[in-house]
Amino acid sequence: MSEFDLIIANGTVATAANFFAADIAVKDGKFVQIGQNLTGSKRRIDASGKFVLPGGIDSHVHISQPSGEGIVMADDFESGTLSALFGGNTTIMPFCLQEKGQSMREALTAYHALADGQCYTDVSFHLIISDPTASVLGQELPALVAGGYTSLKVFMTYEGLRLNDAEILKVLDVSRETGATVMVHCENEDAILFLIAKHELAGDVAPRAHASTRPIAVEREATHRALSLAEVVDVPIVIVHVSNGEAMDEIARARARGVKVVGETCPQYLVLTAKDLDGMDWEDAKMVCSPPPRDEAAQADCWQGIETGVFDLFSSDHCPFRYDDPQDKLNPKGSVNFRHIPNGIPGVETRLPILFSEGVMKGRIDLPRFVALTSTNHAKTYGLYPQKGSIAIGADADITIWDPEAKRTIRHAELHDGSDYSPYEGMYVTGWPVTTIVAGAVMVEDGILVGKKGQGKYRPATTRPVGIRGQA
Ligand code: DUC
Ligand code: ZN
Ligand code: ZN
After folding, report:
1. Which of 117, 199, 266, 369 has its CA 20 to 30 A from that of 205?
2. Residue 344 Cβ contacting ligand 1 at under 6 Å
3. Which NCBIfam families match (predicted)?
4. Ligand 1 midpoint to CA 110 (Å)
């Protein structure tokens, strides 16, 4: 009888701490041995010349999220997790949105119903708090946090979503009491509305105006304010989708004052700029996301943050809308005025190849840093560690095998999401995830889907996460 279910042999194994030549053995969905010359398994995968990494965890993904009247997000759980899987991810964390007047429980029941039986990767949910009533804050949230919903996103922008400072303080206070982690979208809504009004008055309503109505100052000010509110409450905080050096400086300064802050950036801030919103006429709408991509200097700053540790998390912020669709980017109002173009771009399948190619293969970061930024730190920040995020005895056998020699040109036609374009179309990358294993089950093998819908499961978070900046 075989001792193991699966052995992955002869690969270069990496964790967030180091990398080494080893075989790894899996049984009952967990890592059970890491060693040399392992034998005795039902299945054996030869990973000679390949990298064997913890499966990617994308902790910032939007799927089937209500996005305004008449707008339908391009991915449901089936297409979103399939696309994630082909991009080398084994777990994704989408957001369950509480709509105004809705109880959080009600929102969760509906969101779970959308995910159940549909997933190719494991999933775990964050909550978006849009209506922090006394009962949500005092009763629902503490019970939900105790039940494994331990991360909450709040917005400082968007009508219907934005919280004011008093409300953010209350949410932060609940997080201090319960051990939940608060993620903040930092942009100053009043300043944005002021600039939108000016642009509209001047008749400047094409998609590229999206970037000029959300300048760096708008993000920098809100970042400073969010960090100051966390300092007042004395609680850790996550600043998501940071796009530029000035917001990064706020994070560094807050850390120097003792604020426990986790910083996140995304591919669009490393490889796109506002110029990508130029010259395509209304096709610029394909690049509309918030915060918007900036300029080459901001790009260089974000790379520095990846290299030096200002950023702990590299996420996709996959927020997919179709371009040529009256329910998405080209909705009747969005096709005449930028302010009605849904904000967000697809990217869950391209996140890892972009950082691998531009980061690891170009020598900006090493393999352990890649693993930390794309997997381990996500698990630690959001309560999935040590079950997920590392190759370690007893952890879930979530594995991505990379071919570092593979060369690909990103073409949306070859991706698996529900959108109709990729912002990274035509980008040439070196290195691609070829085989992906979720909790011991081979799901993609040599680029071919072999797993089934429904094999991905919901994973609750632990209540007081290990934390990478001492959150617990
Ligand atoms: N914020 C996100 O986190 N994702 C997409 C749109 C947005 O504003
Ligand atoms: Zn956001
Ligand atoms: Zn997002």
Report:
1. 266
2. yes
3. D-hydantoinase, PRK13404.1
4. 21
